[in-house]
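Q: AAA+ ATPase domain-containing protein, please. Structure only.
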Amino acid sequence: MFSARDMPSPSSIFSAYASMTASMMLFRSMANDLIPQPLRGYLLNAIRYLIEPRSSTLTLIIEESAGISRNMVYDAAEAYLSSRVTPDNHRLTVTKTRMDKNLSLRLEKGEKLIDVFNAVPFKWRFVCSVESEKTNDVVVHNSSNARSAEKRWFEVTFPKKQKEMAVQVYLPFILERAREMMEQQRVLKMHTLDPSVCYSGVKWDSIILDHPSTFETLAMDPELKNAVMQDLDRFVKRKEFYKRVGRAWKRGYLLYGPPGTGKSSLIAAMANYLKFDIFDLQLGNVVRDSDLRRLLLATANRSILVIEDIDCTVDIPDRRHAHGLKQSDIQITLSGLLNFIDGLWSSCGDERIIIFTTNHKERLDPALLRPGRMDMHIHMSYCSYQGFKLLASNYLQTPSDHPLYGEIEGLIEDIQITPAQVAEELMKDEDAEATLEGFVKLLKRKKMEGDVCQNNSAEPKRSKVGCKQKSKGNIGVSVTQRRTRRIR
Ligand SMILES: Nc1ncnc2c1ncn2[C@@H]1O[C@H](COP(=O)(O)OP(=O)(O)OP(=O)(O)O)[C@@H](O)[C@H]1O
Ligand SMILES: [Mg+2]
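A: Structure for AAA+ ATPase domain-containing protein:
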């Protein structure tokens, strides 16, 4: 056995190392004269390998780019380490772009950080260098005016015996964590057609989607709301399912109901819930089939394609005249559009949602209502008592009960009042009492005026889901009245 007595003392180690280094120098000077160059290099490396002290740590270099692409591990490390800065860090960079929700802190050049993972310390260092123009040598960067030639990388050092864990567990963990962080910070975008580009072809223009509507603020039948949320949850989880059954990973929703019942608000709530961008395709601005094809190809995965008011439209004769086009140039039909979208998304679209809205479901082209076209038909309807309570607690922050609520319940269930009208009424006064009294008066007035739900009304009071009935109309995209709308 190896006992303490057998252990070499530090001074003996030092003198042994010194004598080995001296022998090395001696060997080098002798070798210069006696041994030819290629062999000399090989021997020197072999001797150095045998006598130099062995390191017990391993350092991974994570460069910013991998060839011409960005290195995903670098981006992930940058995002992940920004959440691990400690009071020991002396210099941090702070940034916020137009597309960021929050300020982000990042390590500044030369900063170090220790991240303990599974009880193993990982020592990180952020390094920048600039390529010197004359010599092509890499020198440590300390001037800010040479940013274009700057090379950046992270070094992470850890015990060598943890190599497997670092590569198989730690780095994948960082990639996943960073993906989650980026997802949370993602700013949603709303893409609309740029009206300035007309004849030469339309293109998407984007703004930040800052719509406050969420499922919590949306007044709709609670069962229906749950059904929609569950449908969305199921959809995003079923990548493998769609692949297995050979279907495009897409889902279609038809939202129908009178103006002001929350169709556009529901679209915004869905986008906020899934963190999907919206592409608002105003068909009235698309003249040619080729434009439509180009626009659809330019939409992104994990997005919602919205076509509002499909029963309304596109004043074809006017547009044809304005653009000097022949009838044959205008080929946009609803079934053509749907077939094209199906084909396109089957081959190159993932996690796509398409939403059509209409105020008149009965006027729609049967092609759209055919089973398999729109997966879910969602009826948005007049405000129920439940809906009123939700809006009142949002707008007035009143408690869940109030002496006037009984009277409101009795009146509202018989009256056709949209959530938009209710919301408008609830915003009229900052004083909750006065507002509710005014609201009761409005309901009574409406009742007197006969603005009530008829038993045989085409618009049932409560929202329904999934009633895929056929209708007679064959209007689709090509009808008479032009009406372009945006999500408000
Ligand atoms: N169900 C609802 N829940 C909460 N707020 C609503 C609801 N419906 C309407 N509102 C309010 O009314 C405004 C207009 O509603 P929205 O634009 O969503 O209606 P719409 O059904 O899309 O109408 P249109 O058919 O005219 O496009 C919204 O910005 C919102 O403030
Ligand atoms: Mg709308």
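A: Brief note, in case it's useful. Residues 217-220, 259-265, 359, 380, 419-420, 423, 485, 488 surround adenosine-5'-triphosphate (ligand 1) (CB under 6 Å).
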